[in-house]
Specification:
Number of helices: 5
Number of strands: 6
Helix content: 25-40%
Shape: globular
Largest sheet: 6 strands, parallel
Distance between the termini: 29 Å
Radius of gyration: 16 Å
Oligomer: single chain
Strand content: 15-25%
Length: 189
């Protein structure tokens, strides 16, 4: 695929919490996605986004983040599960854009210290993503007991996750291509 037709898929690390173990997951997904031909990736850390807490929605839109979302063909959200839900600042960051998300693919990697690997955060985030106009893929990656999956340097200890991430990326990339074709070639009704 020529560079001008490469897909652009940012990976969003959705927590600002100190000591976040989901950072290892985000780097794993980022490294696996970088290996894909015809795909450009960028790691977006919500910790780095300038978010005002005295305003809401598009009034606090960050031009750089909005340009990234406008340009993207799909998104990966890596988010930990906090008390059965998603981090508030992830939601705050997602709410900074609206039209930029329409008809773009999104996949979620759920992370938790428990055995279910963020299944509840994925379940709770799906209606939000749908309301934003994103198209969710049916493959997710659940990283349960995340504290046991990486060593102290952030190296993956269970190679089975590479296969899971690759299957997830296959589906996301396919959906991103289909939706880009639709955005470019089929007029909205």
């Amino acid at each position: 695929m020529p560079a001008e037709h490469s897909l652009f898929i940012p990976i969003i690390l959705g927590t600002t919490r100190q000591g976040r173990e989901s950072e290892h997951v985000a780097h794993l997904v980022f490294e696996q996605a970088k290996k894909r031909a015809g795909v450009d990736v960028e790691l977006v850390d919500v910790r780095e986004l300038p978010m005002r807490l005295d305003d809401a929605g598009e009034q606090m839109k960050d031009p750089k983040f909005s340009a990234t979302i406008e340009r993207c063909d799909g998104l990966v959200i890596v988010t930990p599960e906090y008390n059965h839900g998603y981090p508030g600042l992830l939601k705050h960051a997602l709410d900074m854009n609206l039209k930029e998300y329409i008809h773009k693919a999104v996949g979620i990697c759920g992370v938790s210290a428990g055995a279910v690997g963020g299944a509840r955060v994925i379940e709770n985030l799906l209606p939000v993503l749908r309301e934003l106009g994103l198209v969710t893929i049916f493959e997710d990656v659940n990283f349960g007991k995340v504290g046991t999956l990486f060593d102290e340097r952030g190296r993956l200890l269970d190679e089975n996750y590479v296969r899971r991430v690759d299957k997830f990326l296959d589906e996301l990339i396919w959906m991103a291509r289909v939706l880009r074709h639709g955005r470019e070639n089929i007029a909205p009704v």
